Amino acid sequence: MKNLRLSMKGRRAVSGYLFIMPFIIGFVVFMAAPLIMSLQMSFSEVIVSKNGFIFNSYFGLSDGQTLGGIYAAGGFSAVFKAIPDLLGLDNYVHALTVDPTFNQLLIEEITKIATHTIAILVVAFVIALLLNQEFKGRAFVRAIFFLPVILSSGVLVNLETDNTLMQGMQELISEQTPFTVTDSMMEILRLTGLGGDLLDIVFELIAEVYDIVMGAGIQIVVFLSGLQNVPASLYEAADVEGCTKWEAFWMITFPMVSPLLIVNIIYTIIDFFTKMGGDLTDLLDEKLLNFRYDHMSAMSWIYFLVTLAMIGICALIISKVVATDE
Amino acid sequence: MTTVKHYKGPVRADGTPIELPKKVLRLQQTAKAKNKKPNRSRLGDFLIYSLLALVACAMAFPLVFAICSSLKPLDELFRFPPTLFPRQPTFDNFSDLLVTMGQSWVPFSRYISNTVFITVIGTFGNVIIGSLAAYVLAKYNFPLGKPFFNLVVTALMFNGYVTAIPNYLLMTKINIVDTYWAIVLPAVAAPMGMFLMKQFMEGLPMALIESAKIDGAKEMRIFWQIVMPNVKPAWLTMIIFSVQSLWNAKASTVIYSEAKKTLVYALQQIQAGGIARTGQAAAVTVVVMLVPIATFVLSQSQILETMATSGLKD
Fold it and tell me: B135 with B59, same domain?
């Protein structure tokens, strides 16, 4: 009896490993290994020669040793040359102190990520709440709200950079969407004497709405799925106990959906981070074209560390909030 | 006999009301007061729907514009000031596009089959491998499972720049540059879907899996017949993401042979033909959008409506 149980346990463990192995292999090969190599690049002086890459590195590996043999291939090889008097942090120092634009772009990007993440989460949550209500044509409206996901991550963004039509369309969008409406409204309000600095701030926020809404598609769907996973019996029980809708929202809806908050925060930040076309990505592109892979890697890693810190702070705050609700 | 107007509470056989304790009566009254008060006012409703309508317009605008542009004859495309809706809708742009397609060096069907192959295999692999791993991480006490998952989440936060060069070196090493696998394999290993699946599977009641185990189901069977049907919304979402990114893959850095290029790449070549092809370019935009939108439309009702069914009552 005891033997049988053990063997069953063993078999289950084996199937567990079989289930997860393909993913682990894929992850290590296409994600972990490249990341490690990029980290090594950031600590080295990368020279692209006709025989392949040469990593002049302060760290570890002895002269001429290839990187685990993995990367030495075909016309390309990565050879390490240990140069002890090369400071390992050179690329990082360069990025933060020498490069004229990196600091500024980094700070700009981070403030943009922070404000947009908060705004997107709030907008997505409110819209998900509204879309979760019963009303006519709900499926159609939901489909519309998912459109940005298809449009923004797909063709339109790829196309709009190298296409006259898309440029025209971009201009047209900025001409025809609420921006002009806000501008003209602003004029009217100014003329009637209601204008002022406060109005300017409000309208600036409104002008951002388009970006925020277009960036909120996935987040809406994730929140919506979370909302639909809240058992109706909970609300019924709360109703029987004399709970108001407002209380039910904070005591049931919010705690039940809050695990998805962190999913959405991570998704939003990644979305920003990986989106092409920002000033920072332009800088990285320039480094890429000039074969400064070492500088590029160091900058990417700084950016990553900052993002990680931001997500960490968010996660900490949210875990506190969730914990107090329980 | 005291009859109370509108009294609907418990009564004795003779019709007199049973007097409830005062506390209960008070509670009933407050409950009624709360119920009577409408939760949403007319004005609130109006504001909510006008907000939704406004946001929906902003979201739908690019799509509407792209479709309208593709239906405009060339002279209308360059009209200033530009108009949104075509005055004389025509399918000329699409027929022009077909003509250009027919003149391509490699038969155009080749590009289509390339992209279809890449999309189908990549999506299939990504969903299966990601779900299997997510299942183990969500429902097993896998040794080092938690640190591994954290590592995956961390890896999600890197952008393409970090891994671009190393990935290329790696692909040359395992000799998959200039094959379909250079697009398919990284897509299969993409961790985003696994992350989503794991989050969904955590919500799956353990009792469901345990009862299947007690009934003697093997792991594979539990996975296919219990777990996967219950997280259908999750893998449908995964399919949407995956189809979208693979369908739009240009992959011009890892594929050189003309015969292996993707549809989007070929269509972009047509688009790049300059001012004279503006109309065709508009048509291209619509053609390329069709598949992701179709995938979404086909699965959206599933995703959005059936998320609640978990198969068990708590």
Answer: no
